[in-house]
Fold:
Amino acid sequence: MDISKLKIKYKELKALEDSDDGIFEFKNLLLKDDDEDVLQFHIDILNDRDDPYLVRDIRSFFSKRKDQKKVSAFIATKIKDGIENPLLKADLIQILGNLRSPLVKEIVHDEIKSANRDIRYRCIIVMGWVGTTMTDLDVLNERMINDEDGQLRGYAATAMRQIWYNKKSVKNRVTKYIKEAIESEKDPEALTGMIITLQDLHKKKLGIKESNYGDVSGDVQEAKLKAIKMLSKLK
Structure:
């Protein structure tokens, strides 16, 4: 494909008052083939952050590409070769997760302790999508215990819940990890993630309500005490 045509079309799209008016025409041209120069252009325009809604659309278009094996390999190589922009790296990790690429686990294992919070966040979420092994659970447990951000510690717990949705046999391991962590945990967001995970795994009402949209409510400290009591009765 002639990349100059893509660049012209992208410039025209950016000039529109509302990018939605031209997004489908641009999408069709962008996805016409999976040549490496086209894939590189697709990645490059993710760096253009002026319009967050346009960035969201462009990121989502990767899942529409025809040769997803080639796309995954290309993105994985770019990440491993080194990307200076942490936001772009986080986006590419999320894209690989969305594609359920088998290449993403190794990258997540390497990046989940990144100094950049957004990269750690995307790695935690992606591991919840693609994790299947006890090693994957161990990686999330390490973040649930050690991440400096309480919200991310909570997300690590709910990522383990996501693995459980797909592999029920991990229930006891996840329960064990949360039991070891919950008593000393003080951050409300971390506790919330642990408690809603326990509620789902054990079909118990511990006092935290979670809406279909992910909103939570309830007395976290009271729910923590109920969770600890429930856990103490488990064999």
Notes: Residues 34 and 70 are 8 Å apart (CA to CA). The mean pLDDT is 94. The longest helix spans residues 150-166.
